[in-house]
């Protein structure tokens, strides 16, 4: 038997696998789709090898690929479901996976969360460092432009102007080798009293100092620049770099810059449908403008500090962040705006990439269009080294040995606390696996025990290794298996008793009259329904001679087997006494004397005995504590109202003064008979039948029912009464035996009484 598999899957592997694969491929729709897809792909491959390609073959090949995807997807889903059922059948694997999902996965997610949070913090900090570095460069450029403008106001002659530009450029070149300075002639008025402020000597042509290798020096100052001057970040494109084209949206073009750096251009479509190819070979320059005479400027100083390799290396050395790629996005609402055209080879990007870290990020920088003054966005691709950035942050702290305090704290956090967390996680994992093994071991032992019990081995005992809940469960299982045989024996004994009671019921029913009494002048119907398999109610028809018949109905106190035995004893006694005692009163007196000597002190019997004399047309009866009779006169009577007849009498079996009290209280009554008279003898199971609300059917309801339907035959009236009782009781259980005799007087006959023995047992 294969271990670890559910009982339904313990089949020969080779046979089951071959049959399952054959059925899946040939008798299921996904399998047929998969085979069809393979056939289509093979035929398409053969056709292409013979006749070449074509649109029809391409379409057919697509259909085949779709069929393969559908078929393989279905079987992959089925395979995953089967693997899940096989792998997760054992409780141990489920518990281990539960522990992993509850304990390990959240820990990994928390670690990933803090790792991502730290990375995001460093990314944002790197963007801040880049922006702050560029702000420093802008402040330096504006200060240089204003300083140069101040010197030019003091040296208006042309040679002095050139010397002032050269001196400022030499100062800037110490930190920014590509720094360039230009003096541009302008003509504008910034103040109403410009004449009072004086004028400066404006150069006839622009003067320049520095290489100006990045872009051509400006020959004019745009009108958007205020008289106070400006400073900002400007973008310029290397020669050959496209800035706009009617390229289909989403298409990527590749251009090669003079520096040999291969960088893609990205097409962007604005709200008006204009397609713009943003330049990815873009470089940045910090440009500051200061007017020589603010009141009525005739010249302006332009200082350019290109953000080239030197600036990038300095940024990398100072912060650990390197800029290795720039991309400009189009300025919103201005289709003509574009970066400045470059005039020489752009600085090679990525020159210090070997020192940069592996983490890439994008920093958004604002640049200004030189012509219009509108603002745009530059996407600066950066690489950062967390270790270098951390070293720069902690460089000013005190040292502990060869490391700073922050580095020592970091190592302590990573290696001490992290190691402690790792050890705790490993210990928790080992403990979880041990607990899972303990739990699943007990479950497996219980599973083995149930399998042995299912096979009929009730002697198997489970070894109890721990007194925990599972151990108590195993002990309960052992107790259960020990008592199963006893339960089976008791079940067999119960079935035997039920069979004996069924036979006893048949015997008891055979003691009752087996059909109605066939006697001219009388119509008799009876009913006996025990509350259990056997009961204590009894009725009988006793033919006494050719014109007399005795009627008996009795109720033994209690239900079940004991009452049935007393009923059988009563039948034999009455059969004997009815042959020698013609008076119902005398018969009951003799019966009480005999029964009282043999009946248990806790039991008693109620009984009504009547003698019908058809020749004298009378009925004589006596009642020994039994329920009353209901009498409905025939059609010839003045009134046909139902009457309750209850002559005095005490129950049988009580040993009170040797039967003298019974004899004194017992009363015998004789009534004349007319055609159509109806007598109803019944036990308390009829009148005390209760519904679910514990309401009794009652003698008054029974009398009213008999009175309303007195014209029916005795059999029809019996069925009518039975239906009314069943409707009243509803779903409530029967709590007492129900017995009833219906006697109806008919026209006088001539033949003697005869009890038909071939009729169906009444009440059976």
What is the arithmetic mean of pLDDT? 77
The share of residues in extended strands comes to 15-25%
Spatial gap, N to C terminus = 55 Å
Number of domains: 3
What key phrases describe this protein's structure?
single chain; about 775 residues; alpha+beta; Phosphatase 2c, domain 1; 3 domains; five-stranded antiparallel sheet; about 45% helix; rod-shaped; disordered N terminus; disordered C terminus
Description:
The protein is α+β, with helices and mostly antiparallel strands. It folds into three domains: 70 residues; 282 residues, no CATH class; 239 residues, 4-Layer Sandwich (Phosphatase 2c, domain 1). The protein is 44% helix and 20% strand. Strands 2-1-8-7-3-10 form a six-stranded mixed β-sheet. Strand 5 and strand 6 form a beta hairpin. Helix 4 packs antiparallel against helix 5 and helix 9 packs parallel to helix 10. The N terminus and C terminus are likely disordered.
In terms of topology, how is this protein built?
Blueprint (H helix, E strand, L loop, with lengths): L12 H14 L2 H23 L3 H33 L3 H64 L3 H16 L6 E6 L8 H4 L9 E3 L20 E8 L14 E5 L5 E8 L5 E4 L3 E10 L7 E8 L2 H11 L1 E9 L10 E2 L17 E10 L6 E10 L1 H8 L5 E2 L2 E2 H50 L14 H43 L5 E2 L3 E8 L7 E7 L4 E9 L4 H17 L6 H15 L6 E9 L4 E7 L4 E4 L10 E3 L14 H6 L2 E5 L5 E5 L1 H4 L11 H10 L5 H16 L8 E8 L8 E2 L9
């Amino acid at each position: 038997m294969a271990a670890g598999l559910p009982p339904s899957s313990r089949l020969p592997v080779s046979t089951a696998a071959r049959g399952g694969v054959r059925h899946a491929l040939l008798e299921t729709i996904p399998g047929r789709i998969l085979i069809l897809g393979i056939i289509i792909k093979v035929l398409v491959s053969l056709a292409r090898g013979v006749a070449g390609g074509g649109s029809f073959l391409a379409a057919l090949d697509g259909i085949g690929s779709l069929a393969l995807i559908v078929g393989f997807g279905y079987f992959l889903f089925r395979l995953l479901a089967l693997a899940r059922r096989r792998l997760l059948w054992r409780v141990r694997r489920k518990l281990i996976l539960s522990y992993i999902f509850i304990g390990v996965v959240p820990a990994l997610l928390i670690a990933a969360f803090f790792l991502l949070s730290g990375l995001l913090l460093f990314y944002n900090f790197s963007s801040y460092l880049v922006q702050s570095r560029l702000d420093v460069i802008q402040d330096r450029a504006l200060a240089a432009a204003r300083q140069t403008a101040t010197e030019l106001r003091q040296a208006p002659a042309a040679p002095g102007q050139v010397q002032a530009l050269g001196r400022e450029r030499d100062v800037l070149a110490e930190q920014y080798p590509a720094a360039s300075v230009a003096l541009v002639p302008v003509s504008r008025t910034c103040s109403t009293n410009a004449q009072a402020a004086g004028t400066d000597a404006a150069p006839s042509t622009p003067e320049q100092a520095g290489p100006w290798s990045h872009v051509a020096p400006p020959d004019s100052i745009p009108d958007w620049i205020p008289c106070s001057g400006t400073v900002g970040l400007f973008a310029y494109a290397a020669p050959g770099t496209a800035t706009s084209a009617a390229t289909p949206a989403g298409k990527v073009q590749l251009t090669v810059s003079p520096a040999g750096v291969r960088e893609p251009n990205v097409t962007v479509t604005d709200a008006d449908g204009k397609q713009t190819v943003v330049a990815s070979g873009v470089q940045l320059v910090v440009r500051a403008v200061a007017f020589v005479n603010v009141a009525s400027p005739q010249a302006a100083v332009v200082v350019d500090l290109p953000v080239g390799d030197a600036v990038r290396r300095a940024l990398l050395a100072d912060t650990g962040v390197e800029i290795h790629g720039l991309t400009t996005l189009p300025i919103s609402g201005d289709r003509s705006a574009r970066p400045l055209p470059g005039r020489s080879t752009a600085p090679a990007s990525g020159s210090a990439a070997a020192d940069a870290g592996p983490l890439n990020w994008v920093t958004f920088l604002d640049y200004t269009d030189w012509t219009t003054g509108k603002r745009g966005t530059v996407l600066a691709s950066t690489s950062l080294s967390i270790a270098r950035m951390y070293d720069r942050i902690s460089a000013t702290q005190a040292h502990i040995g060869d490391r700073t305090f922050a580095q020592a704290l970091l190592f302590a956090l990573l290696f001490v606390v992290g190691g402690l967390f790792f050890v705790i996680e490993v210990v928790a994992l080992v403990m979880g696996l041990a607990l899972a093994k303990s739990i699943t071991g007990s479950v497996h032992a219980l599973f083995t025990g149930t399998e042995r019990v299912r096979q009929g081995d009730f002697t198997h005992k489970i070894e109890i290794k721990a007194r925990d809940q599972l151990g108590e469960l195993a002990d309960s299982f052992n107790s259960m298996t020990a008592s199963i045989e006893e339960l089976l024996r008791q079940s067999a004994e119960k079935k035997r008793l039920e069979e004996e009671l069924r036979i006893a019921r048949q015997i008891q029913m055979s003691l009752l009259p087996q059909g109605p009494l066939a006697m001219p002048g009388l119509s008799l119907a009876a009913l006996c329904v025990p509350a259990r398999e056997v009961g204590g109610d009894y009725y009988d028809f006793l033919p006494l001679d050719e014109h007399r018949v005795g009627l008996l109905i009795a109720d033994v106190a209690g239900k079940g087997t004991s009452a049935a035995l007393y009923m059988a004893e009563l039948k034999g006694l009455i059969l004997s006494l009815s042959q020698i005692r013609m008076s119902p009163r005398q018969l009951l007196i003799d019966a009480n004397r005999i029964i009282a000597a043999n009946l248990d002190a806790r039991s008693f019997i109620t009984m009504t005995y009547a003698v019908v004399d058809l020749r004298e047309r009378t009925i004589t009866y006596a009642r020994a504590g039994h329920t009353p009779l209901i009498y409905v006169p025939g059609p010839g009577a003045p009134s046909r109202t139902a009457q309750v007849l209850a002559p005095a009498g005490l129950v049988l079996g009580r040993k009170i003064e040797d039967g003298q009290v019974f004899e004194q209280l017992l009363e015998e009554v004789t009534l004349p008979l007319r055609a159509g008279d109806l007598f109803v003898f019944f036990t308390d199971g009829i009148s005390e039948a209760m519904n679910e609300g514990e309401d009794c059917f009652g003698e008054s309801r029974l009398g009213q029912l008999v009175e309303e339907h007195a014209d029916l035959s005795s059999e029809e009236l019996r069925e009518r009464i039975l239906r009314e009782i069943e409707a009243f009781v509803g779903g409530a259980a029967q709590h007492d035996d129900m017995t009833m005799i219906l006697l109806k007087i008919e026209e006088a006959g001539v033949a003697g009484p005869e009890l038909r023995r071939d009729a169906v047992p009444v009440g059976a």
